[in-house]
Amino acid sequence: MSNLNLLSSNTASNAAWAAAVPTSIKTTADAANAALTAKTGTAGGMGQKDFLTLFTTQLKNQDPLDPVKNEAFVAQLAQFSQLEATVTMSQTLSDFVTSMSGERMMSSANLIGKTVSVPDGPAILAGGVPVEGVVNLPTGADGVKFDVYDARGSLVRSQILGPQKVGDMTWSWDGKNDAGDAAANGTYKFKATVVSQGKTTSPAVSTMAYVTSVSQDTDKSMLLQVQGGKTLKLADVQRIGY
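RE: above sequence
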């Protein structure tokens, strides 16, 4: 390398040295490109092995006129340690999520056979036993109308109630139609019409239904299948009964 002109400018020296390096020697940039392009079938991210390959290649082929400073060397070691810790933590969290998924499934299975509150859920009439529906009134109500529809969508019963306080309002259907006759056993649906502060709304009516099975969604959230064919997320359950 005696034919190199040692210039006073460090940048110029580096450029001159790089031009004189034989093509058989890989530079740090070449090593980086080789490490990344070798990861076919991935998003091109640098992994732990790639970082180590790049790091050691850099040390082998550093510029003799401008070697890696101690501060830069320590900083790169710190980056490598941080990368290793991140990979380990990611794997640990993945294992934890997998184990918790099984725990949630077993815990949710305990709800099978119990009743849960289902927004816009089915009202199951059996043996003339009254069926309750709950509607939330965040601003109270000047008046509330409850309608009961059968499985075919036909109106079975209507009842108008007076002013109501703020909070949850419970309404009980005695299982009779508007003519006072007992309705047939089966699945019905409640609809509420609320007038409050001059506005008319139709909030969801929650009913209690038996949990028949438990499943897991693609996002690992737990799903409950209830009597009447409706499915809801476990996180949406607000009341549990027997």
